[in-house]
Amino acid sequence: MPKLFINTMGCQMNVYDSTRMADALKVLGYELTDNQEEADFLIINTCHIREKATDKVFSELGRFGQIKERRQKEGKDTLIALAGCVVQALGDEVLRRYPIVDIAVGPQSYHELPELVTRWLRHKGQRLVAQFSSDAKFDHLPKAQAKGPTAFLAIQEGCDHFCSYCVVPYTRGCEYSRPLEDVRQEAQQLVDTGAVEITLLGQNVDCWHGKDKKGQPSTLAELFYELSKIEGLKRLRYTTSYPTDITKEVVEAHKSLPKLMPYIHLPIQSGSDAILKAMNRHYTVEDYMCVVQKLKEARPDMAISSDFIVGFPGETDKDFEDTLAIVDRVAYAQSFSFKYSARPGTPASLLRDQIPEAIKTERLAILQKRLLQHQKAYNKSYIGKTLPVLLTEKTKKGQWLGYSPYLQNVHVESPDDLYGKIVDLRITDATASSLTGQQ
Ligand code: SAH
Ligand code: SF4
Ligand code: F3S
Q: In the CATH scheme, what architecture does the domain 3-130 have?
């Protein structure tokens, strides 16, 4: 069996895409390996969101080049492919910039991989690029297979919001929603092959409006009710939500659907209305707080997480203080924070008042410290409580690791085989990054 290695960079959508690429390449006999040294086929699934992400591609390709050279001396061929958002952003330029790459596929065309690989094997040396494809890729992919107890399922792709800093509308294109029946079938396949928790993915998952059997657009809340009927599916999650796209039906669903987990990723980006406006985010801090309040009314235990960008062009000390203030107000359970990175082709990259790197670094450190304090306090508030934990892996230290309903990592020592089980654990200890539980 030829071996396939995929290095996945970027967001959960890329993680999902990598599993689907592996599913597609199974048709040609490729088997996934986590040892890149033995791989006949090496893929990097790239991310274009920040400059750093794109820089990583060069260093990883350098490593792939060494592997290819060593294997060549052993008389073995190695195929190197680049997939993901960098390919979409660079277009044909991608082959000139990365001479070592044999095949490049954008996020909308990876279903063409088996055909591209077959062509490459037939005419070695011919370098191939596939970008936006007119075919709907989901119609061409084989059945999905769960790789463990938790699975991602992409229901929506692309973005029409055009935040002034972001490349996603250019790399993933405009919004597309998969039909309800497609999503339901894939969820069933994932459950049939071992998934007990599914996370629905979309760049703006709340905008999902896939057609039902009658060809009428349905809503995310309706999808939650539909998927909740799947026996064997124990937990349902969704990400990422654009704050003001959350409907009252989605809020209601949190009240009435026990399978829908009490956790929401609700990126605010900044706590300053002036910066939010410059970012072309269509809400104010108070609009955001209104959404938070409604969610908390529906589920008082709702855990909220967010993304933050510091050092957006024009961000003053006062704007940054406003961000710290919102962090204290919401007391986030988890968060991701980044230094603003000017991306080619985005309106914000042309703004004059770019913030010096040193200030960005300083603000990020202050923000992350504050976020961690809240995360730690949040986790510690569970000490003494009992939580149902889905165990997903055994760590190198022999402990079981899993997730609480609030997406906290939970460790437990147990002689039992807990893989894929949801077990009630009493929380005995907590740090900013994880909880310790006992059976
Ligand atoms: N659709 C999601 C986010 C997708 S990108 C949303 O609207 O919230 C993931 C995160 O990367 C964003 O939330 C943002 O915080 C960050 N990000 C996007 N572009 C960035 C840039 N140019 N510089 C720094 N961070 C960025
Ligand atoms: Fe990017 Fe904004 Fe779309 Fe999120 S909503 S993907 S940040 S453009
Ligand atoms: Fe990166 Fe593309 Fe995701 S740019 S964050 S991999 S949508």
A: 3-Layer(aba) Sandwich (3.40)
